[in-house]
Design a protein that fits this description.
This protein is mostly helical. The chain has nine helices and three strands, in the order H-H-H-H-H-H-H-E-E-H-H-E. It folds into two domains: 128 residues, no CATH class; 71 residues, no CATH class. Strand 1 and strand 2 form a beta hairpin. Helix 1 runs antiparallel to helix 2, helix 2 runs parallel beside helix 6 and helix 4 runs antiparallel to helix 6. The longest helix has 37 residues.
C-alpha cells in the first residue's frame, strides 16, 4: 500500500523511552511524512510513481532537514502550542535526531516491501528486497503500534491525573512519582530504565510471536513462558506495576 501507519510502531518503540531527550511528535511525523507523496498519487493529485526521490536515503535526509526547519519555525511562531506537544526539553538536537531517524527508518522498512525501490540512489539496486527478517519485522510493527498507542494512553491519563492531584496537593519531594490508573500503577523511571525496558519488552513480543497455534503444548510453553516473562519485565523496567 502507498500509505500505511505501521511505521509508527517502531517510532513509538524508540521515541517513548527517549521522549525526554528527543521530541516524540517530530519522530512520529518523520516516520510517516514520506508517504504524503504516495497518498497524493493515490488520489490522483500527482502523477506516479508512488515512490520517487523522497523514498531514498538522500531524499529522506532532505525531507528530514525541511521537517526540522518547519518544526523550529513553528515553535517560534506558535510557542505555546508547540510547547504543549513537544516531549523533550526544546533543544535543536531533539528535533534533528528524530527527523533523521524517522525518515531513514521509513525508507529502510519500505525497501523490504517494495523491490523496485532504489534506497541508495544514485547507486542502483535494493539490498533489502524480499529480505525475510525485515518482512517479519514489518509484521511485528503493527503489534508495536498497538502497544505504543496503549502506552501513550496510559501516559496521558497519568499526566492528567498528576496535574489534577498537583493542583490539590503540595508538591512531593519523592524522587519517584507514582500514578495510579485502575489496577495499574506507573512509576517515573530514568531514561536508561525506560530504554532497557522497551528493548526487553520488544524481545518478549518477538518471542511470543514465534508461538504457533499448531505447536505442541511443550513447544508453546517453551516459547510462551520466556516471552511473557520478558514482556512483563520490560513493562516493569518502564515503571508499570499491577496492583
Amino acid at each position: 500500500m502507498p500509505f500505511t501507519f505501521y511505521h509508527l510502531g517502531p517510532a513509538l518503540l524508540i521515541g517513548l523511552p527517549l521522549r525526554r531527550r528527543i521530541d516524540l511528535t517530530t519522530l512520529c511525523i518523520a516516520s510517516v511524512v514520506l508517504d504524503i507523496w504516495p497518498a497524493l498519487v493515490l488520489i490522483g493529485v500527482l502523477p506516479g510513481p508512488y515512490h520517487w526521490g523522497e523514498h531514498t536515503y538522500l531524499g529522506a535526509a532532505v525531507v528530514a532537514g525541511v521537517l526540522t526547519v518547519g518544526m523550529v519555525l513553528g515553535a517560534r511562531r506558535f510557542p505555546t502550542q508547540f510547547d504543549r506537544w513537544r516531549s523533550d526539553r526544546g533543544g535543536l538536537t531533539g528535533l534533528v535526531i528524530p527527523s533523521l531517524a524517522g525518515t531513514l527508518l521509513h525508507v529502510t522498512l519500505d525497501s523490504g516491501t517494495h523491490p523496485t525501490m532504489d534506497p541508495f540512489t544514485p547507486i542502483a539496486g535494493n539490498p533489502f528486497a524480499d529480505y525475510p527478517p525485515l518482512m517479519e519485522f514489518i509484521g511485528i510493527s503493527h503489534i508495536l503500534l498497538a502497544i505504543g498507542l496503549a502506552w501513550l494512553a496510559l501516559l496521558y491519563t497519568a499526566s492528567t491525573r498528576s496535574t489534577e492531584e498537583g493542583a490539590r496537593m503540595p508538591s512531593s519531594t519523592s524522587p519517584d512519582r507514582v500514578f495510579a490508573i485502575g489496577p495499574i500503577q506507573i512509576i517515573s523511571r530514568s531514561v536508561k530504565h525506560r530504554l532497557l525496558g522497551a528493548i526487553v519488552a520488544f524481545l518478549g513480543v518477538v518471542i511470543l510471536l514465534l508461538v504457533d497455534a499448531t505447536d505442541t503444548v511443550i513447544r508453546t510453553v517453551a516459547w510462551g513462558a520466556p516471552g511473557g516473562v520478558m514482556l512483563f519485565n520490560g513493562l516493569y523496567l518502564n515503571g508499570v506495576r499491577f496492583r
